[in-house]
Amino acid sequence: MSPSVLLGITGGIAAYKTPWLVRLLTQSDMDVRCVLTQAATQFVTPLTLATVSNNPVHYDMWANRDRPGVEHIALADEVDVAVIAPATANVIGKLAAGIADDLLTTVFTAVRCPVLICPAMNVNMFRNPIVQRNINTLRELGWNILEPAAGWLACGWVGEGRMPEPEVIAEEIRRLLTPADLAGERILVTAGPTEEPLDPVRFITNRSSGKMGVAIAQRAAMRGADVTLVAGPLKVQAPQWVTHIPVRTAQEMYDRVMERFPDVDVVIKAAAVADFRPGNSTLEKLEKSNIRPTIEVVPNPDILMTLGGLKRDDQVLVGFAAETTDVLRKGRGKLKAKNLDMLVLNDVTKPGAGFDCDTNIVRFLHRSGEEEQMDIMPKEQVADLILDRVKALRKGLVS
Ligand code: CTP
Question: How much is the pTM?
């Protein structure tokens, strides 16, 4: 059954963005019910929201008084996650004080599911200590607060108070709907290519987009893990909720990973690390006249191999291998040589597998010798399957 989202909309200018938020949620197969304050109906019409949500919109406490049932309780009972976006200073104050004097505040006083509040207002209103105290009251009661973004505000001021973009709110809602089965796990993911400079403007790199590693970091964070993403230049955005440590070269990635390795439970090395770097990169831009026809290279440290040598018994190490020939034999060799718990192997010659696409076709090679061949599937789904196996491995090690 589709998850059910209750979207409360209050009277702020950011309400004009809510039809787009509803579209994003319904596209992710969520059933969205909108509840508006009277003020919100000045900024966005119930007709628009009813059309995009494909559900009736509620804004009048007394609209259905001649029908049986208690509407505000029925609305509150039926939801999996309840969101207020935008949330004005007024509604935040009322909810913090337990005031329920219209349909929206009445419904939100009755909900028992996870709640997400997205404050949006003028920067000086947002910084007002009374508003801050009210936000903290809701936070301490276990409601989730999505901090407003900083930037240009409709009132002409610049500062914090902007409602985060609908895409950001939709991701946060998806997180709240995901069971936190990896809570307590500290997971380090590497992603993307590395860039090995020849001079200040030229470098050697590879076709990795970072999509696979980003999908793993994203799903791990959604499932409640504490995630660090050490990533080379990504072609996709780093996910919300993760500590993103951008790096450029293999040596930088090595340094950042080594610093953190003692403090993590799991490392998943999805990055396409350059095995070599130019041995004679220069600080000044090379002139055409002094570029030699050959580039001399020196080996980079093998990060995964080093981790395999340092790994504690309670740590899980997952590597990747992208091969084009003799795929299985090479994969099995890497699993052993690098002392991995699991290797995610893909044959990048297959359409729909490997670099810079949204799907992957992988085979899991386990330390135990067991092997699992997966069908073609979105990288997000591959990420979840990897994390399911990581979870089982960790359970076996720590229990
Ligand atoms: N890897 C790494 N450090 C390197 C090279 C690779 O940590 N310097 C990691 C990758 O992140 C990946 C795994 O090792 O998880 C396999 O990478 P791959 O390039 O396929 O393997 P190599 O061992 O470098 O072997 P080869 O390039 O010779 O196939």
Answer: 0.90
